[in-house]
Amino acid sequence: MPTRSSLWQVDPMRMRKVKWAVEYLPQSKVLVADPAENKGKWKELLQTDTLHVELGCGKGKYSLDMAAMNEQDGFVAVEKNESAAGIAARKMDEDGRDKKLRLIMGDADRIGEWFAPGEVDVIHLNFSDPWPKKRYAKRRLSAPSFLEQYKTVLSSQGKIIMKTDNAPLFEFSVPQFLSHGFSLEEMSVDFRREEHPEDAITEYEEKFIEQGKPIYRAVFAKEKA
């Protein structure tokens, strides 16, 4: 059995610098150079009534597949790692499926600068960095400083969907959401025990499923003021 400390360890699938990916970014069609310019205008830009934002999109597979599966919805994928963002950008640019999709390279703590109050309908947190050491807990995407920004940018019916393979992060996150203005709508400690064709599988998730790791998932709704 793995120990609690081993479960907290950062996954070894870390991105090293990929030169071609970094060099590709400036020419990407899907990358938004100055996302703050679209604040309050994302739905108009993407011609949609429903806006999804994925924070920490990695190489972009989830947002790309979800945007293709839900052609009427708009998706904005956010990734701070330059190499991962470059790989995602090229993948999104070269994909031939119909989709309403954009990419932001930046840190999730700036979400309030990029989106207007009530503008976002769904936030996706997929396999976020667990930041296992307690002194870095404030950097977790379910830490209070992030949750307050999420509440601001989410619409009145807004939701956050979280998936992770990391049990300690899940145990930390659920009470954080519940004590900061969100209610729990759904929860599973083994989400992929059944097929969910409506939900795309991320790159990380594919590896975890192959390893037999359970996927933890929860859906949180913004409580009405």
Protein model, in words:
The protein has 225 residues and is an alpha/beta fold. The protein has a single domain, classed as Vaccinia Virus protein VP39 (Rossmann fold, 3-Layer(aba) Sandwich). The chain contains 9 helices and 7 strands, in the order αααβαβαβαβαβαβαβ. Strands 3-2-1-4-5-7-6 form a 7-stranded mixed β-sheet, with helices on both faces.
Report how far apart the termini are: 43 Å
CATH structural fold name: Rossmann fold
**Name of the CATH homologous superfamily:** Vaccinia Virus protein VP39
CATH class term:
Alpha Beta
Q: Helix/strand-derived class?
A: alpha/beta
Number of domains: 1
Cα shape: globular
Low-confidence stretches: 1-13
**Major pleated sheet:** 7 strands, mixed
Order of helices and strands: HHHEHEHEHEHEHEHE
